[in-house]
Amino acid sequence: MKLKYAVIGCGRISPNHIAAAVKNKLNIVALCDLEESKMDETILTFNLPNTVKKYTDYKEMLVNENPELVGICTESGEHGRIALDCIEAGSNLIIEKPIALSLEEADQIIAKAKEKNVKVSACHQNRFNKSVLKMREAVEEGRFGKLLHGTAHIRWNRGEDYYKQAPWRGTWEQDGGALMNQCIHNIDLLRWMMGDEIVEVVGMTDNLMHEFIDAEDLGMALVRFANGSYGLIEGTTNIFPKNLEETLYIFGEEGTVKIGGKSVNIIEEWMFADNKDDSEEVKEKYHENPPTVYGFGHNPLYADVIDAVNNDRAPYVTAEDGRRALELVLAIYKSAAEGKSIKLPMEKCSTIDFKGRFDR
In which residue ranges of the chain is pLDDT below 70? Predict the structure, then answer.
């Protein structure tokens, strides 16, 4: 039986979700957006059947269509509210990153999903990159030995045209800045690879080039993990003249791995003391060259969530994973705003807390 699927929000990222839904043979029953033209364009682009209904009110859509799986692709600030309504209606969810903009909403999503027994996956699709899966395998096999430190570099470019496409971008109410929007994928990977549990975070953020947005265009942080290892984060949208790289390094006592490319899709260094595999063969086998920074991860993420729903198991990327990525970004924001290290775990924090931070 094909799951009944609907998408809420037909903006920039939604084609990746629709394409994955088509590829995974979901029964697409509805689209929802405030602008009918965007839904029309989606139907045309993907040659969707005329049975697909269009809604401007997602609550009406939930009642009428009763979708079993929903992709939430709206502006970030609406993710939490919409997710809670979808869960209440009994729908399983794939939520575009970030899972929410406050820890309180993320916790509500996690709690309500358990109460209603629905599956919720945060859309951190880079976890499905071939290169990332290979790195994760090495971590789980203990090939690095003692983990020493890891670094995440996101050196991208976003100009004024990008922000003009959607006025919610770069606002504290609906988005956050470079770390929350562009960098959260690699921040998620760093935390995941280095053992998840964090003791403290020291961060600095600034708005150097983007006076037309509220939030940061540069963020840097030092992270101390509970296992004694460290993390370094550098994220920016100021790179001239275009996206340069998204790179993840893991350094251990017995291993060094570097994944690079535009969006962590190419293994550039693969060195282990155990000499268990040929580094050149690994680099060649796990190399991908996606046409955009979104990569190829949406298809396998959708396949995994469908299987999780059908077999009543947790998805590979959970709502808790989404909360952890959100928490780390918010900890960096809080540290930068308060000028001190922030201890984790955090219970309450939201992007709204930093409104006015870079007002000129």
Answer: none
